[in-house]
Amino acid sequence: MTARLALLAPLAYLAIFFLYPLGAIFERAFIQGEGGFAGFGTILGDSYYLGRIWFTTWQAAASTALTLAVGLPMAYLFARHDFPGKSVLKAVSTVPFIMPTIVVAMGFVALLGREGLANTVLMAVFGLDDPVIRLANSIWIILLAHAFYNYAIFVRIVSAFWSNVAPQLEESAAMLGAGRVRTFWHVTLPVLLPAIASSAALTFTFCFTSFGVVLVLGGPQFATLEVAVYELTAKLLRLELASALAIIQMVFTYLFLLVYTRLQQSTSVQINLAPQEATARRPKRASDMVLVAAMIAMLLVVLSPLWALVERALSTSDGYSLRYFGSLFENVRGDVFYLPLPSIISNSLEFAVLTTAIALTVGAAAAYYISRPGRRGASIADALLMMPLGVSAVIMGFGFLVAFNRDPVDLRATSTILVIAHTLVAYPFVIRSVLPAMRGMPQQFREAASVMGASPVRAFYHVELPILTPALIVGATFAFAVSMGEFGASLLLVRPESTTMPVAIYRMIAQPGAENLGRALAMSTVLMLVVAAVFAGIERFRYRNAGGF
Amino acid sequence: MALLEVSNVTKRFGDGFSLKRVSLSAERGDIVCLLGPSGCGKTTLLRLIAGLESPDDGTITFDGRDLDRVPSRDRGFGLMFQDLALFPHMDVSGNVSFGLRMQRRAQEEVSARVNTLLRLVGLEDFRQRKIHELSGGERQRVALARSLAGEPRLLMLDEPLGALDRALRETLQAQVRAILKALGQTAIYVTHDRDEAYAMADTMVIMEGGEVVQAGTPEELYNAPRSEMVARSMGIRNVLRGQRAGEDEHATHLLTEVGLVAGVLQGGDLRPAGDALAFVDERRIEVGARTQASASATQRVTLVDGTVESRRFHSGELEVVVRAGTGRLTCVTKPTDDVPAAGDEVTVAIPFDAVRIVAAEREGITSAADALG
């Protein structure tokens, strides 16, 4: 009974703030468009939009392949080896995934752009007059940024699975006469395949709906569907075409997510699982040490966009200084909509805190319902509540614009709309973080507490809540990071006085000139540090309380 | 009236019965063992008594009071779960003191009681240990201390030693019984392990398929099992099923699957040609080379011809399984040179007084036959 009540809030949220705007998009596309399906006709008959569909697909495939190539060796290292500093290295390697897309994009501008760190160094070292790296506005910089952004989640999923696969599987293959290569090919790889495939499907979906990275790094000839929807909405004001294109993109995304869900289910089939400590070994042979050294070097390279970002933000026309940072506090261009840095940061923090609170409530309530054993509706509710994950943020923002633009719910003029949109993006992450902990909670804990005289409320407070706390913190962290970095929906929904950090950064680089780029880099650095600080604090908190379960 | 009375309790899950009109009672200070195969309803019965489930029918009373509307937290019972359910986020003393804190006892009292209990289970230096730092046996003892902490009026233990290896289990059985007896604790102990039940029980309750099959002291059940299932549960290996074929002044004769066997009828009536069970003491039958001996009647021995099926050495003795007629007899004997080997044709000598005969409940037909008189 209480579990049903718990489901009410998430479902109401989903219905009002997701399904209703989605309906509005469908209404635009099918009813308001000239001649019913006209929007679809225009798009499917236009070689530009067909080209966008094709480009979006193959860049996602190429990005996924690159992610795999970087992630697989690293997953092996984390799964099968134990070495000093492993936990630090592991934490550092996940940094890209928690970074806002706009920070990642700016990091690549700072590293590989025309005036980027790499070119500056190369020109200085070899005495060249022209930049050698010409990746700016090329497909390569997009692929690299996607790999950078996604390898962390790939490594997390695959190495977690890998470390639970008992080495005895490989050892018995060796006993049966298989060499190292054949053991990997015939035993290890097939066992890992579901984990690899499911994380690849997830990576593919993320790259397919990529927005910030493509918008900042790509330039007009590299627009993905997501960028095309944004341009149709914000620049060309062709809402019926945007709606049709959004629906096409949604169909693709849900297909990919379906594949992901199927594959993920097969990873939960336990294959001779062993505790993690038992499967890792300390590096003994020289080749292992080389491997570790190579991995550390690789991490330095992999994280290079982030330190390039800091370096470029500090490097001004008159040497290293904090000038760009200082200028964030001044209205340099005499802009009417200018907001000083503290206001922008406080906007972002305010939205993030509100988003975290709502997403945690909605997500935890949903997870509570889904985790109760023997609920027939649980998997349906799960799938339904995960739907926002399959709709890109730009389309969601677009849906809000067309749905909440009239009475009774005209939210365009409020900043509440941003919190609502951020929550919609964030709460699926909360569900996914909290659900395993709730599912893993033995019913006996509550019963044991009850037999010992605890009321249901006290049993929850003293037993279940403390055990769930680490998972709730992880969920809250995700919600916070998502809100801090949210770009696609914000770009469409933000009002001048409610500008967030990612939107402010984009507005700055949209203006020409080294000065504006410098300020954008400085602002990106600030955003990166804020997010990193939150995560660092939470990691410490987690380690102190994680105990051993 | 006994301290705990369970009367005609029925519980259904889904389509099937989990418990069918189960009754049992426990006297103050007794350890009652529920023994039966997994899935027979033992755990369900415990959960009903604990108040974690409510019965569909029947009553449970404690100390003369009906527990029907009493929630589990107000029953004042203790329950040691099969997988212990120790709280992973608390240390040993946090777990042991949990119930006392829920009862809002004074801080000094809680602390003193935790010390007493940890001393009782031999873990006084483990107060600050985390649960994951304990060995299996230590966890078991923490769980026992925790379930005893609130001075439960009734303690229930659900296969508490199930996950441990044999040697540790045997040590802990003795310790647990000693602790419970020292406290005069009334307890219900669930197990599927016969040796454990023998080690723990004042009273045994044998369950099968959601029903209580027979209850009594271990001696009573061993000496007079009412069914083959009970006999096997009590560890009797030679159970023969047969019909009464006649009797003389020394013995009752039974036609069984190994042939005609003579034995002593235990109490009760046995109708002519009525169904009966014969329990043959495996240590008192002898296996020898095939003989034509005819002295059986005077020596009060039944002779059965058969073939040795297997011979195995176990704990200083030989176990010889002989196939006779359509049945089998197991003999346990000192290992000597003349013990026959597998495949040998043998004669088994069964003394009359090594065979106990009881009237059998013929499943399903008993009541109809009774009705017909």
Elements of chain A, N to C (H/E):
HHHHHHHHHHHHHHHHEEHHHHHHHHHH
Task: Please name the CATH architecture of the largest domain in chain B.
Answer: 3-Layer(aba) Sandwich
Largest sheet of chain A: 2 strands, antiparallel
Listing every helix as H and every strand as E from the N terminus to the C terminus, the arrangement of chain B reads: EEEHEEEHHHEHEHEEHHEEEEEEEEEEH
Description:
Chain A is mainly α. Chain A has a single domain, classed as MetI-like fold, CATH 1.10.3720.10. Helix content of chain A is 76%, strand content 1%. Chain A contains 26 helices and two strands. Chain A has helices at 2-32, 38-44, 47-80, 86-93, 95-98, 101-112, 117-126, 139-163, 167-175, 180-208, 212-217, 225-235, 239-267, 276-279, 286-302, 304-314, 323-327, 341-371, 378-390, 393-403, 416-439, 443-451, 456-485, 488-493, 501-510, 514-545; strands at 315-316, 319-320. The longest helix of chain A has 34 residues, at 47-80. The two termini of chain A are 30 Å apart. The relative contact order of chain A is 0.13. The model of chain A is unreliable at 269-278 and 543-549 (pLDDT under 50). In chain B, helix 2 (92-102) packs parallel to helix 4. Chain B has helices at 42-50, 92-102, 107-120, 136-149, 166-183, 194-200, 218-223, 228-233, 366-372; strands at 4-13, 16-26, 31-35, 57-62, 65-66, 77-80, 154-158, 187-191, 203-208, 211-216, 238-247, 252-256, 259-265, 275-280, 286-289, 301-314, 317-324, 327-333, 345-351, 355-359. The two termini of chain B are 34 Å apart. In chain B, 25% of the residues lie in helices and 36% in strands. Chain B folds into two domains: 4-223, P-loop containing nucleotide triphosphate hydrolases (Rossmann fold); 238-372, RNA polymerase II/Efflux pump adaptor protein, barrel-sandwich hybrid domain (OB fold (Dihydrolipoamide Acetyltransferase, E2P)). By secondary structure, chain B is α+β, with helices and mostly antiparallel strands. In chain B, strands 6-7-8-3-9-10 form a six-stranded mixed sheet, sandwiched between helices. The interface between A and B is medium-sized, with 20 and 29 residues.
